[in-house]
UniProtKB/TrEMBL annotation:
<dbReference type="GO" id="GO:0045121">
    <property type="term" value="C:membrane raft"/>
</dbReference>
<comment type="similarity">
    <text>Belongs to the LAG3 family.</text>
</comment>
<dbReference type="Pfam" id="PF13895">
    <property type="entry name" value="Ig_2"/>
</dbReference>
<feature type="domain" description="Ig-like">
    <location>
        <begin position="50"/>
        <end position="131"/>
    </location>
</feature>
<dbReference type="GO" id="GO:0035723">
    <property type="term" value="P:interleukin-15-mediated signaling pathway"/>
</dbReference>
<protein>
    <recommendedName>
        <fullName>Lymphocyte activation gene 3 protein</fullName>
    </recommendedName>
</protein>
<dbReference type="GO" id="GO:0070374">
    <property type="term" value="P:positive regulation of ERK1 and ERK2 cascade"/>
</dbReference>
<keyword id="KW-1064">Adaptive immunity</keyword>
<dbReference type="GO" id="GO:0002250">
    <property type="term" value="P:adaptive immune response"/>
</dbReference>
<comment type="subunit">
    <text>Interacts with MHC class II (MHC-II); selectively recognizes stable complexes of peptide and MHC-II. Interacts with FGL1 (via the Fibrinogen C-terminal domain).</text>
</comment>
<comment type="function">
    <text>Lymphocyte activation gene 3 protein: Inhibitory receptor on antigen activated T-cells. Delivers inhibitory signals upon binding to ligands, such as FGL1. FGL1 constitutes a major ligand of LAG3 and is responsible for LAG3 T-cell inhibitory function. Following TCR engagement, LAG3 associates with CD3-TCR in the immunological synapse and directly inhibits T-cell activation. May inhibit antigen-specific T-cell activation in synergy with PDCD1/PD-1, possibly by acting as a coreceptor for PDCD1/PD-1.</text>
</comment>
<dbReference type="GO" id="GO:0009897">
    <property type="term" value="C:external side of plasma membrane"/>
</dbReference>
<dbReference type="GO" id="GO:1990782">
    <property type="term" value="F:protein tyrosine kinase binding"/>
</dbReference>
<dbReference type="InterPro" id="IPR007110">
    <property type="entry name" value="Ig-like_dom"/>
</dbReference>
<keyword id="KW-0393">Immunoglobulin domain</keyword>
<keyword id="KW-0472">Membrane</keyword>
<dbReference type="GO" id="GO:0042110">
    <property type="term" value="P:T cell activation"/>
</dbReference>
Amino acid sequence: MKPRVSVQDSALRNGNFSLRIDPVRSEDAGLYEAQVAYNMKVHSCQVELGVITVTLSPPSPVVENEPLSLSCNSSHRANLVETCWFHNGRLVPTSGTFCSLHGALSILRPAMSDSGSWHCQLRYSDNEIISATYNLQILGFDGPTNPVVYAAAGSAAE
């Protein structure tokens, strides 16, 4: 996993033997065990790392009015019960241009206003709730609705 993992040597003297993984990948999910030998004793602890991923299909860049899908998947082992999607902090109703199925959200005709923070929340049969955020950027024309722009002679037009 090098060079994505590190242990702070200076923290070891204070009893902190934390492992840092940056960036985390899907394949990093699983059980981790730390063992420290101190005063002729071996101390150990186990930590399970769960990973959640949000993927975009087709991959970036997304063009306005071309259908897209955001998928939310987790390494959690229980059965998925519910998926909720939020856009800029507001719950997205799955009707009209938004369709949700098995953790994926389809946007049939994405607009510039669909850019921003998309948050998926997964609820499992053991009542575990896991969430992640994806920053969606959509390419398109973000100008006046009227395609005619007037500029004074001698001035700049944009």
